[in-house]
């Protein structure tokens, strides 16, 4: 609990290989009294791989009483594109005294100050979403370059545009590898705060990759948790326009997002970034729980 608010972290869960890294950080923050519950919103694939992921989630929820499996409502349309089905999770998030923090299932680093900073910002309102600095998010990379926090040095560090599907920030796998290597070096040096921004930044209504954000349950209670479009567009374009409020980029909260689908081949075994996931796993053992 933070600032009188119950805190629920939740993951649109599909892949245990990366979630087991994220779990180390969330266990750390649960042990510190910052995270009350973790919800694994079950969104796994069919087939043998999905069976393995579901069994892992079952074991974790059985062994840790603060971790819960949450399944889709029974009376909803199921989309073949599984990302669409995450919008149903918000039907369970209507408690007005709770702050909900969403984590993609390939968030592989959570700074020790991130949870508290996000909750305090979300509690203060009036914005719908409080976003952390997300390493490997095109719009965030754009702002970090413009503020001189990450390199902008052609050709090795090309300029990222202010667009969620920017061809560098969203598509360029080598750029993503460099971002992760930069963060890993800061983790090892104990200087991650050098990647923080100096002040919060308003995020105007525009498509923004929602790999991680905090929001108030009271906002979902207003609509009974029923989103009228897929979750990313609703949180970053549709609802902010309805409310007349910009979202916020919180300057002293930082997480790392492994890859977009467009970047994955650069992180496969034998590729330039094939070592990155194991490097994050090592850091989680050192800095997580």
Structure summary:
By secondary structure, the protein is α/β, with parallel strands linked by helices.
Molecular structure report:
- This protein is of the alpha/beta class and 289 residues long.
- It has one domain (6-287): Spore Coat Polysaccharide Biosynthesis Protein SpsA, Chain A (Alpha-Beta Complex).
- It is built from eight helices and nine strands.
- The strands form two sheets. A five-stranded mixed β-sheet has the order 3-2-1-4-8. Strands 5, 6, 7 and 9 form a four-stranded mixed β-sheet that branches.
Describe the secondary structure blueprint for this structure.
Elements: E1 6-13, H1 16-31, E2 37-42, H2 47-63, E3 67-70, E4 98-103, E5 107-110, H3 114-124, E6 130-135, H4 138-146, H5 173-189, E7 201-203, E8 212-216, H6 217-221, H7 231-243, E9 247-257, H8 276-287
Parallel strand pairs: 1-2, 1-4, 2-3, 6-9
Antiparallel strand pairs: 4-8, 5-9, 7-9
What attributes characterize this protein structure?
single chain; 289 residues; alpha/beta; Spore Coat Polysaccharide Biosynthesis Protein SpsA, Chain A; five-stranded mixed β-sheet; four-stranded mixed β-sheet; 8 helices; 35% helix
Structural class: alpha/beta
Shape: globular
CATH class equals: Alpha Beta
Helical fraction: 25-40%
Question: How many helix segments?
Answer: 8
The unreliable regions are none
Outline the biggest β-sheet: 5 strands, mixed
> How much of the polypeptide forms β-strand, as a percent range?
15-25%
Total individual domains: 1
Number of strands: 9
């Amino acid at each position: 609990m933070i600032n009188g608010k119950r805190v629920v972290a939740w993951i649109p869960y599909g892949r245990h290989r990366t979630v087991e890294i994220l779990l180390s950080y969330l266990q750390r923050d649960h042990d510190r009294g910052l995270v009350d519950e973790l919800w694994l919103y079950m969104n796994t694939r069919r087939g043998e791989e999905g069976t393995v992921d579901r069994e892992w989630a079952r074991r974790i929820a059985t062994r840790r009483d603060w971790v819960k499996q949450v399944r889709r409502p029974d009376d909803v349309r199921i989309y073949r594109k599984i990302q669409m089905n995450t919008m149903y999770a918000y039907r369970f998030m209507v408690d007005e005294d709770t702050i909900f923090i969403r984590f993609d299932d390939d968030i592989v680093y959570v700074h020790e100050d991130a949870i508290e900073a996000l909750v305090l910002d979300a509690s203060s309102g009036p914005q719908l979403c409080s976003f952390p600095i997300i390493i490997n998010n095109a719009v965030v990379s754009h702002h970090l370059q413009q503020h001189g926090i990450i390199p902008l040095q052609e050709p090795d560090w090309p300029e990222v545009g202010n667009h969620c599907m920017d061809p560098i920030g969203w598509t360029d796998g080598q750029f993503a590898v460099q971002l992760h290597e930069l963060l890993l070096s800061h983790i090892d040096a104990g200087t991650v705060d050098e990647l923080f921004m100096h002040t919060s930044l308003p995020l105007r209504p525009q498509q923004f990759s929602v790999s991680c954000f905090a929001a108030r349950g009271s906002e979902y209670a207003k609509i009974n948790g029923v989103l009228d479009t897929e979750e990313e567009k609703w949180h970053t374009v549709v609802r902010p326009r309805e409310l007349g409020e910009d979202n916020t980029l919180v300057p002293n909260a930082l997480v790392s997002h492994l890859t977009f689908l467009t970047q994955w081949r650069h992180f496969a075994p034998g590729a330039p970034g094939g070592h990155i996931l194991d490097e994050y796993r090592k850091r989680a053992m050192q800095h997580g729980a």
